[in-house]
Amino acid sequence: MKAIGLYKYLPIEQEDSLLDVEVEKPIPTKQDILVKIKAISINPVDVKVRAPKDKEEKEPRILGWDASGVVEEVGPDCTLFKPGDEVYYSGDLTRPGTYSEYHLVDERIVGLKPKSLNFAQAAALPLTSITAWESLFDRLMIDINNQLENQSRTILIIGGAGGVGSVAIQLAKLAGLQVIATASREKSKQWVKQLGADYIINHHEAFRPQLEAHHIKEVHYILCLNETEQHWENMADVILPQGRICSIVEMDNPIDLTALKNKSVTFAWEFMFTRSMYKTTDMIKQHELLSNLSQLIDEGKVKTTLTETLRPLNAETLRKAHQMVETGSMIGKVVVENE
Predict the structure, then answer these.
(1) DSSP string covering 240-302, please?
(2) In the prediction, which pLDDT does 297 show?
(3) CDD domains this protein is in (predicted)?
(4) CA 316, CA 249: separation in Å to the nearest integer?
């Protein structure tokens, strides 16, 4: 089958950074399903994994995690899906990726595609939606069904216009929270406002004066989606005593965790591949999450974050998509369709 892979980790401007290759079509076993890929989405993790490094692969490494498509075959232990089902998912960081005609994935991390979305619109959602959902409801421990109590609570989402932030704003509003999103450009400010942010501040400036301008002294929750180290002091300053902070962005240097001690603040990491990487006993929660998300989308309560669509699915197109994501200024998501 056709796929896009790499042998060397090179700057994306070089043609050899991503190559059109032929690989053997996989066969599903156990709880795997074989999906015929219709569309994929490019995420920062794709760019990070592909980034230049002194390493070479003997066999082509196939990247890519977000995908939507149609179930072609199912393994003998599958109970959730059947051939012909339209699905969407974000895959497993430890297995070959979705830059291919067909892809194997464990059914426990797959959901039925929202009926109201096409394949491109659906492919934009899984990784960012799982990350946003787990951040809000598993790590920050917000109760999505307690809207009345949540109306008096505030969440600051740092990096609101990106893929995860675009979903997190919508989910936080569904939970009843007052949402403060950060955005620095006029286009990104308009985007987060359209998604439902109640207030907007600039993450390049001190948080407290901007929050106080909106008559907000401190916030109950913070979701950090970029530059954890850069924003650490600001976050420690504006989080309420006994508040919660969650970040998805790793740090290059140690930070002062004791800055949170006197306030008894909880800090948590979110990494949406944890369940699939470690085969946790609750892996199926991602299937359940995606199923719940599909229902919310079909009810018109959450919308896709797709902003750019490219085609066809080949190395040249993927190099363009990687370049777009590498700028760090993407609003929403870029998807590549398999024509």
Answers:
(1) EEEEEEEE-S--SS---GGGGTTTT-EEEE--TTHHHHTT-TTTTHHHHHHHHHHHHHHTTSS
(2) 97
(3) AL_MDR
(4) 29
Sole residue written with tokens 């995606």:
290
User: Does the pTM of the predicted model rise above 0.70?
Assistant: yes
For the chain, give the number of residues.
Answer: 339
Torsion of CA 169, 184, 321, 333, to 10 degrees: 10
The Cα–Cα gap between 212 and 224 comes to: 20
Q: How far apart are the first and last CA of the chain?
A: 15
CB-based contact 153:177 (threshold 8 Å):
yes
Burial of 26 (0-12, 13-18, 19+ CB in 10 A): middle
Pairing of β 2-9 and β 53-62: antiparallel
- Beta carbons of 109 and 275 less than 8 angstroms apart: yes
- Rg, the chain, Cα only: 20
Distance CA(282)–CA(8), nearest Å, equals 35
Average pLDDT of the segment spanning 316-336: 93
Tens-place pLDDT, residues 171-184? 999 999 999 999 99
Q: Which residues pair with 224 in a beta bridge?
A: 158, 247
Domains and CATH numbers, the chain: 2-125+304-337 (3.90.180.10), 131-269 (3.40.50.720)
Is residue 214 within 8 A of residue 237, CB to CB? The reply is no
What is the tens place of the pLDDT at every residue in 238-254? 999 999 999 999 998 98
